[in-house]
Amino acid sequence: MDIYILVGITIFLALAFDFINGFHDTANAIATSVSTRALSPRMAIIIASSMNFIGAMMFTGVAKTIGGSVADPSKLEHGVEIVIAALLGAIIWNLITWWFGIPSSSSHALIGALAGAVISSEGLDGINAAGFTSIVKALIFSPLIAFSIGFIVMWIFKKIFANSSPHQINKHFRKGQIVTAAFQAFTHGTNDAQKAMGIMTFALVAAGLQDTLDVPLWVKISAATAMALGTSVGGWKIIKTMGTKIFKIDPVNGFAADISSASVILTSTLIHLPVSTTHVITSSILGVGSAKRFSAVKWGLAGKIVISWIITIPITGLLAMIIYRILMVFM
Question: Membrane-spanning residues where (predicted)?
Answer without folding.
Answer: 45-67, 79-100, 136-157, 217-239, 301-327
